[in-house]
Amino acid sequence: MKHPDQYRGEEVVVLGLAKSGVQVAKVLHERGAIVTVNDKKERDQSPEASELESLGISVICGSHPEGLIHPGVSLVVKNPGIPYSVPPIQKALELDIEVVTEVEVAYHLCAAPVIGITGSNGKTTTTTWVGRMLDAAGMGPIVAGNIGTPLCQAAQEAREDNWMVAELSSFQLKGTKAFRPKVGCLLNVAETHLDYHGGMEDYVASKAKLFANQGPSDTAVLNWDDPVCRELVPYIKAGILPFSMTEELVQGIFVRPSFIPDTEDDLKRMIIYRDYSETETEIAAVDAIGLPGRFNVENALAACGIAIAAGADPAGLAGALASFRGVEHRLEYVADKAGAAYYNNSKATNSKATAMALASFRQPVVLIAGGLDRGSDYMELLPVLGGVKALVALGQTRDKLAAAAGLAGVKRIISVDNGESAAAVLQEAVREASALAEAGDIVLLSPACASWDMFTSYEERGRIFKEAVHNL
Fold first, then answer.
1. What are residue 239's DSSP bridge partners?
2. Closest listed residue to residue 170, CA positions, set 111, 210, 142
3. How far is the C-alpha of 159 from the C-alpha of 157, rounded, in Å?
4. Which residues neighbour 203 within 8 Å (Cβ) at sequence distance 6 or greater?
5. What is the rounded distance in angstroms from the CA atom of residue 379 to the CA atom of residue 314?
6. SS3 category, 43
7. What's the predicted TM-score (pTM) here?
8. What percent of the chain has pLDDT over 90?
């Protein structure tokens, strides 16, 4: 797309009235574009509409009307979650009208160098951690994107001496054209969002757009333990900074001694950075990291790599590694009840995230799981379900998860479906889990599924879980 200033007097359609849609509509309107915002939600469900109309922006709610997209439209900016199969997007593509997400618009506005962070799991934790590290280094980070603050809003506030630290989803990246982060990080790739992408090929290609426009002066931070990340190396023109839990790298961020996959031990480990001249810096001891779980060690390695690529001193990262206590709904400690510890991991919307959470605990786990059915049979959970003390299953996938748990040899399996509200079902699941838990156990909400069969978001699901725990 062109710079937003170049759309003065031209027609632009913004699809979706979420936070990012509202901000991008304002940005383009302020620069003289003729903006129409369209959302399928009814007007009474779109409180943002009145604010935009007061600015002179046209808003159409309730449907995608015929004629919305026509040859006179210069640009379509879509909410990332709107699939490309909807009629307005299909019409735009037929007419060769450019379709982008807010990320592309924000990139053209942003004076600060951009750090882009994506991956199937760990994005929010790593993005927040990087912000803490750069803040401690006095580098003026602005944390935005999929994590909360719309990128267009943050981009207008950014100066050249800031760093824009952006959490990016595959949905957002799929709609980019010129976007070029100074530092791009791919944390991992798991089978998820296939209902949107139609298959792994499109999902991986969307993630890989993070690196598409990078050059030799940029840096790609890659998980060397993830085979999909490594397969992208021949296509990346940026300098590559790898991180690994299982391999001592010639150059990059790694753990010494390395972790052996699928094993537990009590070895004392150190996070090491080895630069291009093979000079080593000991960053911090692994057991000093402020978050539990082996997967959070991986997030820590990624955050260190990103911060170093941005110019932070590796010797100064230990404080942020130790002081960070995590993000809500991501292996969040809730309370201790009758000697059992309760954790909220509602953000675990795929099997890999749940497997990683289960691997974080050595204590017996009573698992609460289930949610939106996207077609998985959950057989990939068999290796970790074998160590689960009991399963309380709910949502559309409760029978599938119960079947997988039975094959894994889980002794106690309870399926919750009392026909009441979603909140009541989750509250009952917490009570059932509490009855199964003993002192020293972990009760873990880690659904392995999206929340939309029962809740508006994983955040709502997590909040109801925490309320139910506190009310035991």
1. 219
2. 210
3. 7
4. 170, 189, 192, 193, 194, 197
5. 40
6. helix
7. 0.81
8. 84
